[in-house]
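How a chain folds remains the central question behind the approach discussed here. For one protein, we set the task of working out the structure tokens from the amino acid sequence alone. The sequence in question and its structure tokens are set out directly beneath this paragraph.

_____
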Amino acid sequence: MRADYPRPMARPRTATGLPAAAGPRGVAAAVGEDRAAWGTGLSDVLALFRSSDSLTRADVMAVTGLSRTTVGQRLDALLAADLVTATAGGSTGGRPAERFRFHPERGVLLACDVGATAFRAALCDLSGAVLDESAHVMDVSRGPRPVLKAVDTRFATLLRRAGRAPADVLGIGLDVPGPVDFATGRVVSPPIMTDWDGFDIPGWFAERYAAPVLVDKDVNAMAVGERQECYPDVDDLMLVKIGTGVGSGLIAGGRVHRGADGAAGDIGHIQLGEGAADAAAGDPPECRCGNRGCVEAYAGGWALVRDLQAAGRDVSTVDDAVNAIRSGDIAAQRLLRTSGRILGRAIADAVNLVNPRVVAVGGQLAHVDEQLLAGIREVVYRRSLPLATRDLLIVRSRLDPRAGVVGLAHLLADELFTPARLAALVGR
């Protein structure tokens, strides 16, 4: 897609007489609030506009309970920053009340979903809507600098096609197929991401863009995208990705559950142990993480390639394995059924532990054959508690393969409009 955008409007003076360039400190002083309280109040007001088509000042007062003066100050600040714009109001015979709406074209966001063998880059508006995107083949094991350079080249192309400049970028999001320390944006001991361990991804982009950089695990972003676009009324969701590897992202209580250190949801490295004999014969296989008997070592795409090669099939990639399954290869289909049962054991444990309403299954192998989902469902409903499965949906991802960039866009938009970030943005 190709999109053209209006340029940001000039910043007017606020109703207090302070020029918009005075920023949040000037407005905060005018209304007698400290900077932190002002930023929080401003974020709360903007959140109303982000979730509504349009509102009047009276609407904001009614919802927030704030005074006319306070609403006016905060609305003026948002207008000055071009995050809210005035729109025509409907007439009921008298003078129509002035209405305002969120202005998602104020800037753009850049997002990139980096997988094991390819990445998808996207240009998004401030509401999280994807405006343009492109997918490209590249092995993540080539290392951070070659991969990020390729990503940045795609970002530049997307900006050029939209008639945007780097200065219009208000946030950058990247997800990767490995463990991420969310606070620092650094990858930690990833099994398949050669040379990425500890690499400063936000710092790499800081040399090119004056915008915050968010880095997360790919399945977390996918879970956010799936929930936001397909199940907005579901507060507890699990996204299981079955591609080259196996991972899962968790939404609990409407928020991403990352755990204490960002390691939550690493379902692919649950070790099945000796009890796996009923699902897969032979000694526990070695996993890429160095352990034996992990779920991924049985059911991941790379493990499927390994086992097909051992069966004498001419395959070298997960795509080759997918083609073998689709062509009706008996060995490939048998291995897929085994993968489904193995995955079902791990997902059943997760269902008992976190009780999601929806389990969405995505990744290359999820869309190949109904037998995979059938195997998962069979084991989950047999092994999980009746209460946990009473209303449980186990479905294919409806958004895959775009779930990652869509989720990143929404994560970025939410991060950009936190009180501290918003105060800095309005203060520009």
In short: The first helix runs from residue 23 to 31.
